[in-house]
Amino acid sequence: MSDPHSDVQLVSDEGMRLDGRALDELRPIRIEAGVLERADGSCYLEWGSNKVLVGVYGPREVHPKHMQNPLKGIVQARYNMAAFSVSERKRPGPDRRAVEISKITSEALECVVLTDQFPRTTVDVYIEVLEASAGTRCAGLTAASVALADAGIPMKDLVVALASGKINGKLALDLGKAEDNFGEADVPFAIVPRTGEVVLLQMDGHLTKEEFETILEMNVRAAAQVYELQKQALVKRYSAYAEPAPGEEQAAQPVQAVVASGSPERFHEPKIAAPPPTDVVVDEILEAVEATTPAAPGEEPDVNADEDEAEGGDI
Ligand code: CDP
User: Fold this and answer.
1) Pocket test for ligand 1, best of 136, 138, 314 (most atoms within 8 A of CB)
2) 0.85 surpassed by pTM
3) Lowest-pLDDT choice from 101-110, 188-197, 243-252
4) Regarding the domain with residue range 29-238+274-312, which homologous superfamily does it belong to in the CATH classification?
């Protein structure tokens, strides 16, 4: 969102985006669970040109000990972008943006991990962005929830995250790099599909209430498609441990369980239990946003002031 008034053409007259997608189309997604030998759980995810690797360790003892909570465990996510993940070398080490993304990711994951089952411990989630092309916080969070499930951490559900926005005056699902840079608005969002809880909601740029509502609906609908891919990755992963039938030899299982949408074609509608009705979820989100962001008279609410501030010096 570097230049909200950019005249860069991101959508053709036919409604086609720079990478050939329609406005309501996700980038290709590939999810693989259990890719690291030494981590307790892991996930590799490709989302468009994003490449993200997540390793999970724990539950294990908290250090420093004063951070221990006698009533529940904690989830500590660390988001890191590799120096080679973007075209201009990124200075290694945490910057304000990484600290912010680590924080919102930890908070989103704590909403689904049943932390009361392992007090005094920590679950550490290392998110390494190997290649970055917009939407990496969402890709990292989506992959992290799969890695947690792969580690056998008790959870109430997975988390699906994605970011949609506004480009050349049109609402678009799952923004790509140029769209993120030159578009008018970007709404990173994460949902717990089983319960409809929203565990991450940010906004960069400006949208009308109606546009915001439509984007939420788009995100909720697309999240169901990503959720299906996450579940398939875990099913493949655990099917490697399936007991052989009596008298039947254990078939050699591939170590890697690749689940891919992979193809640049549009996703098909998933065959999964329907999430809560979109309008109900969206109404709840709007109520919560209105309740928490009272606008001063004559002033538009800025739901993402911290994000703007954090991003300012980093990109
Ligand atoms: O990645 P995400 O959209 O969650 O976060 P962002 O702060 O909106 O960054 C958008 C994109 O800008 C990233 O995905 C990277 O491709 C790029 N970026 C970069 O080139 N250098 C940085 N230091 C940070 C981000």
Assistant:
1) 136
2) no
3) 243-252
4) GHMP Kinase, N-terminal domain (3.30.230.70)
